[in-house]
Amino acid sequence: MPTRPRLLAFAGSTRRDSFNKKLVAIAAAGARAAGADVTVADLREFPMPIYDGDLERENVGGLPPEAKRWKALLIEHQGLLISSPEYNSSISGVLKNAIDWATRPEPNEPPLVAFKGKVAALMAASPGNLGGLRGLVTVRSILGNIGVIVLPDQVTVPSASEAFDADGGLKDASLSAKVERLGKTLASVVARLSVPE
Q1: Please, what is the angle between helix 173-193 and helix 19-33, to 10°?
Q2: What are phi and psi of 10, to 5 degrees?
Q3: What is the mean pLDDT of the chain?
Q4: Residue 141 maps to a domain
Q5: Amino acid 62: pLDDT
Q6: Cβ atoms of residues 94 and 132 within 8 Å
């Protein structure tokens, strides 16, 4: 019998009223409805310095405390729900930095332990007409190169400044259902791939 999927949901933004935080919350609700245990994390609560090899080398224990805490959270989960804003046609700096720190090996640890073999579903919301689509190309490439299985399905929300209601939900019911379905799909795939512990 498959184990109950453990998913980590987060946005690549630290902005309090982030469109992508609202979007990933909808997908997380869909995943919970499919039977997954979902932890919603906010990168604002993990204030990591910009990755610096000298800082890593000089820091006692290698990784800064917040980077260690972030990496441990990733390790605890089997799947990732990621909503990525698009900054100048690419990935946000805070998301790239969070990934970079979590890829750094610690003593007696297998390579890429926070990512290898995990499954991810991607989404994006942007004020632009493409809804963050260009940034997701980069996110998909990075995750694939560090051993993450990225689902082919993804959802983008264009004109995000008009897309959400006052409660953080999507005004378009069909689009909201699509986002929820993405969360459900991730939960289903992770459940099928999981081996009972």
Answers
A1: 60
A2: -160, 160
A3: 94
A4: yes
A5: 81
A6: no
Contact in structure between 172 and 159 (CB atoms under 8 Å): no
CB-based contact 156:126 (threshold 8 Å): yes
CA distance linking residue 71 with residue 114, whole number of Å: 6
Residue 69, SS3?
A: helix
Per residue in 49-76, pLDDT (tens digit) is 999 999 888 877 789 999 999 999 999 9
Q: Is residue 46 part of a domain?
A: yes
Crossing angle between the packed helical segments 93-102 and 65-75, to the nearest 10 degrees: 80
| Structural domain harbouring 174 | 6-193
What is the longest distance spanned by two Cα atoms in the chain? 51
Residue 103 in any domain: the answer is: yes
Tokens of 94: 């805070």
How confident is the model over 69-87, as pLDDT tens digits? 999 999 999 999 999 999 9
For residue 119, list its beta bridge partners.
79, 149
